Amino acid sequence: MTTAASMPVPFPFSAITGQPHLRQALLLAAVDPGLGGVLIEGPRGTAKTTAARALAELLPGAPFVTLPLGASLESLVGTLDLGQALAGHELKFAPGLLARANGGVLYVDEINLLPDALIDSLLDAAASGVNVVERDGISHRHAARFVLVGTMNPEEGTLRPQLLDRFGLCVQLRNIEDAAERQAIVRARLAFDVDPQGFRAKHAEAEAALAAALVKARAIVADASALPYGDDVHEAVGALCIASQVDGLRADLVMLRSARALAAWEGAAAITADHVQRVAEAVLLHRRKPEAEGAASASAPVTSNTQRAPNSSGTGQNNASDQDWGAMPPESVGIERVKPLRPLIPSQTAQQAAPKKA
Could you point out which of 53, 129, 216, 298 has its C-alpha 20 to 30 Å from the C-alpha of 314? Predict the structure, then answer.
């Protein structure tokens, strides 16, 4: 297990630039950990780990716990304390990583490489806020309210749809192609590496403001009477989820909670359809059906491989991007007479003419 005490000095969250969707998703999950965590997809070197470690520092006294790929189910959920059992002949619960992450951030790098059994237990606890252990003669339950952050590189495999759906939010990162933005990120990172404490001192005021805003937003979300949902919000959520052809109602519930967390973070007086629109993509990205993504292209006329629809110029000739490079032109095939085959089963006349054996 790796905790915040053994971690290097974290990069300030307020100094992370170039990833606005990542910042928003992490902050919303910190405002309402019941969202079910954040899944971050993207190539290497896109600040996935840096952002997760920086988020934990914004939560007062929050531990940062890393779940290694080689962890066992017992080390995750907890198990029987064998030392106590053998020494005192009593059953005692030994807490796992879920208990140690309570109130903080539980980080899983390359979560798509974890066994499904660990992912199931992890997501159950992240969504419910409670870890229940019924094994080895132990019946124990404890609070497990943490911000789950999982990262993965799609090039190395993905998660099953059933597991994807249980993540609250998903962010898909891409390589930054703007030259000025890349240079600003590199300069900030080099300045941090040269003088971490000096760099953090420059961002101390911004970090304190973010931490205070999180405390305030979490208090608003904890108040059940604050920021109720209006009919217009429900209609916006329902329309977006139906258009994305999602399975079940988990997307609706997560979208409503995310919109409420965003309204609380911004100090809004009420939840609006605009809040729903701004969180919709993070909620639907990993739940949207492929048919919904290609709905626009599906409405175009369908043509055969050998006869393409004319292009917009009306010339009847296709652009290079529209050609079907795998199509082969039809070829005429001649008919050739073949020698008739003798039947394997003799005819009835032949059977009658054949002499019978004595």
Answer: 298
Model pLDDT for residues 264-308, shown as the tens digit of each residue: 999 999 999 999 999 999 999 999 988 776 553 343 333 333 333
Catalytic: which of 200, 250, 260, 288?
250
Structural element, H or E, at residue 191: helix 179-194
Q: Which residues, other chains included, contact 139 with Cβ-Cβ below 8 Å and sequence gap of 6+?
A: 133
Q: Which residue has the tokens 């997809």?
A: 41
CA distances from 272 to 219, 252, 278 (A): 20, 15, 10
The end-to-end CA distance of the chain, in Å, is 89
Clarify whether 250 is annotated catalytic. Answer: yes
**Alpha carbon distance 32, 261 (integer Å):** 6
Q: Helix, strand or coil for residue 26? A: helix
Residues ≥6 apart with Cβ < 8 Å to 28: 35, 169, 258, 261, 262, 265, 279, 282
Q: Mark residue 65 as left, alpha or beta (left: phi above 0; alpha: psi -120 to 50; beta: remaining).
A: beta
Which amino acid is it at 264? A
Query: Which tokens belong to 277?
Result: 């629109």
Phi, psi of 50 (to 5 degrees): -60, -45
pLDDT digits (tens, 9 = 90+) for 246-257: 999 999 999 999
